[in-house]
Amino acid sequence: xxxxxxxxxxxxxxxxxxxxxxxxxxxxxxxxxxxxxxxxxxxxxxxxxxxxxxxxxxxxxxxxxxxxxxxxxxxxxxxxxxxxxxxxxxxxxxxxxxxxxxxx
Length: 104
Hints:
Layout: E1 2-6, E2 12-18, H1 21-27, E3 33-36, E4 49-55, H2 64-74, E5 75-84, H3 95-101
């Protein structure tokens, strides 16, 4: 997962996040900063991220709703969650559900 955020000076930062140390070692080749963390319990403070991008992770989670709750918690107002998935179980997370989930 990649988190992008702007600091107080408006500078954008991209950070790789994974729970696996071996994946973080590979991510260091792409991202300047990496964080070890659980996507269902993110080590990120509330309302500080402008964009959360998750690529083919949701289908591997035991409880995708925990991920959605965490994404909602860390996103700034007007922030974006962008994710891809390659599962036939995606109907449970239809766009209507996701839009309602993130309405504050």
